[in-house]
Amino acid sequence: MRNYTLKQLQTFIEVAREKSVSRAAERLFVTQPAVSMQIRQLEEAFGLSLIEPVGRNIQLTHAGNEFLTHAIAALGKLKDLEASMAEHVGAKKGRIELGIVSTAKYFVPMLLVRFTKLMPGIDIALHIDNRDNILGMLARNELDLVVMGRAPGNLDCEATPFASNPLGIVAPPDHPLVRRKRMAFDILKDYPFVVREQGSGTRAAMERLFQQYEIPIKVAMEMPSNETIKQAVMAGMGLSFLSMRTVRHELAAGHLALLDISGMPIVGKWYVTHLGQKKLSPAAQSFKKFLIEQAEPLIDSWA
């Protein structure tokens, strides 16, 4: 057995994910030299290079790519081990790796505050990204639970709805469509939209909706952030299709307006999801139960 540590594996995975030693150091809350040392010791243990510099960033070598696949799988098995051992401790202690799609960041932190007051012995590591990246982490067993707006169709998962997710068309308050009532959906074909990036769940839901009405989307600009999109809409760049959970405060303040389109807003669901064969720890089971039983009224009062 070669001499390497769990910490070195975790550091390598973070460097591979960020493609940067400096960004990995920030994520791990350590110094860049500390990260470089962990990688160097790991390479010395196996006698080969796992990463190589490319400008200011890094890329994995051929061996590094193979190493990453096995390292992620190994950590997934260790999480299953932890879940099994946690059953001997109970639900009041443990650690949860929680992934959420970026739109859920408007209400999940509030839920975490409530949950940690109930279960102060449970630590939660929060991972925020777009739908495609979160699904990738879920498939690699890097996450215990995921909060997302649509159950994955290509993974063996258990997805349980716990709250509603209304989505609608928003505009700047002085837009000519704001005062009109019960407009047909096809009126939107003449107006540009500020949209989320490919891989976003909101973008996918928007594309499905427009395909349903056989209307092409006029894209004014693509942006990877709901906050940036809201600012762009306020500035008059275009309309947008967003979860109402993300714009409640802007609507209440009059900075944005919800268009009155027939059949909208459409109401989806928020799901708590995990791999079908995943052995959830008592801590993860406790958080899942909390979401199912308590989350919706809390979200309704918050976002």
What's this, in brief?
By secondary structure, this protein is α/β, with parallel strands linked by helices. The chain has helices at 6-18, 21-28, 32-46, 62-86, 108-118, 131-139, 201-212, 226-234, 248-253, 282-302; strands at 51-54, 57-60, 94-101, 122-129, 145-148, 157-171, 192-196, 218-223, 240-243, 257-258, 266-275.
* Termini separation: 52 Å
What is the total tally of β strands? 11
Given the structure, what is the number of helices?
10
- State mean pLDDT (0 to 100 scale): 92
Number of domains: 3
Q: Point out poorly predicted stretches.
A: none
| Assigned CATH architecture of the largest domain | 3-Layer(aba) Sandwich
Structural class comes to: alpha/beta
What general form does the structure show?
globular
Can you describe what's shown?
The protein is of the alpha/beta class. It folds into three domains: 6-68, Arc Repressor Mutant, subunit A, CATH 1.10.10.10; 90-163 and 269-302, Periplasmic binding protein-like II (D-Maltodextrin-Binding Protein, domain 2), CATH 3.40.190; 165-266, D-Maltodextrin-Binding Protein, domain 2, CATH 3.40.190.10. 43% of the residues lie in helices and 23% in strands. The protein contains ten helices and eleven strands. It has helices at residues 6-18, 21-28, 32-46, 62-86, 108-118, 131-139, 201-212, 226-234, 248-253, 282-302; strands at 51-54, 57-60, 94-101, 122-129, 145-148, 157-171, 192-196, 218-223, 240-243, 257-258, 266-275. The strands form three sheets. Strands 3, 4, 5, 6, 9, 10 and 11 form a seven-stranded mixed β-sheet that branches. Helix 2 packs across helix 3. The longest helix has 25 residues, at 62-86. It is globular and about 70 Å long. The relative contact order is 0.15.
